[in-house]
Write a structure and sequence with these properties.
about 290 residues, about 40% helix, alpha/beta, globular, 7 strands, 11 helices
């Protein structure tokens, strides 16, 4: 179980997992505007990448994750993508590393249906379920990643304990996400309600507590990389696109409640990136004890 106290974990008392599923089911079309390929995450900019073109930055984030999992060194193995969206990252990985098997899980039936439709020919197995209860055998998975998805959990230690259960000894769990530098209730109300709540995020985890996660005593932190500035160009894209899309939906009078909330939060992405006193974006990598 998580070591957080209730006052340090919640935006509201809880965001039911069904609510998270509803959020992603209702915003599939909005994410298509962000990436026709199906990417739901921020992009990772590096020198020589054009900051005005999203797709190369989005796929650079995929490579960033895979690099820290060490996939290039594997001759075989299986990778679990937990909180997979519509499977675009696993699809990209299956093309980059055809010797590996990818298992992609989402809690949203709509996302899994879309993933199977989009990527039916790829070497990816899709699972609709909750990453707190994984459908894999003990020590059967070579590597695990959460790309901006563990923030949806109010029980991150439970989720990591389950991931550690299925992970082979010596395997890695890599996650990228935004983290708080102080307790959530000490951040601004605009941040708590305008961003976290509108993205169906019950909690952004505290960085210092995240560094202490052990997955039930089976994991140790091996890498901690602050990379928020690398996301700046794609954050600019998010704010611009969400504003334009919001106006189009209003004119069509077809905005659902979750679309309204999602686009509102997306419009705040620039402010979120500048909120560095309280909020940072990190890659954390944990390794399972041998």
């Amino acid at each position: 179980m998580t070591s957080h106290t209730p006052s340090r974990t919640l935006v509201s008392e809880a965001a039911p997992r069904a609510e998270i599923s509803d959020y992603y089911d209702d915003t599939l079309l909005d994410y298509d505007l962000w990436s026709p390929e199906g990417y739901l995450h921020f992009g990772y900019w590096r020198p020589k990448l054009n900051p005005f073109v999203r797709r190369p930055m989005l796929e650079e984030m995929n490579r960033f994750i895979f690099q820290h999992l060490g996939l290039a060194d594997w001759c075989e193995g299986s990778v679990a993508d937990l909180g997979c969206g519509v499977g675009a990252v696993s699809r990209f990985g299956s093309q980059l590393y055809p010797q590996l098997d990818f298992h992609a899980m989402s809690i949203s039936p709509g996302q899994i249906a879309s993933a199977q439709q989009r990527h039916s020919s790829q070497r990816v197995t899709y699972h609709c379920g909750d990453y707190h209860r994984l459908p894999f055998e003990d020590e059967s998975i070579s590597g695990v990643f959460y790309l901006e998805s563990l923030c949806h959990s109010t029980q991150p230690e439970q989720a990591l304990s389950e991931a550690a259960r299925v992970l082979k000894p010596g395997g890695r769990i890599v996650m990228t996400d935004g983290y708080l530098r102080r307790p959530l209730e000490q951040t601004s109300p605009l941040f708590r309600t305008g961003v976290a709540h509108n993205w169906a995020v019950p909690m952004f985890h505290e960085l210092e507590l995240a560094r202490q996660w052990t997955g039930g005593g089976r994991l140790r932190l091996v890498e901690d990389i602050e990379c928020g500035w690398r996301l700046g160009p794609s954050a600019l894209h998010a704010a611009h696109l969400s504003t334009l899309h919001f106006l189009k939906l209003v004119l069509k009078r077809g905005v659902t409640a979750w679309q309204w909330r999602h686009l509102t939060a997306s419009a705040y992405t620039i402010a979120l990136g500048l909120y560095r006193r309280h909020f940072r974006y990190h890659l954390l990598a944990f390794e399972k004890f041998v």
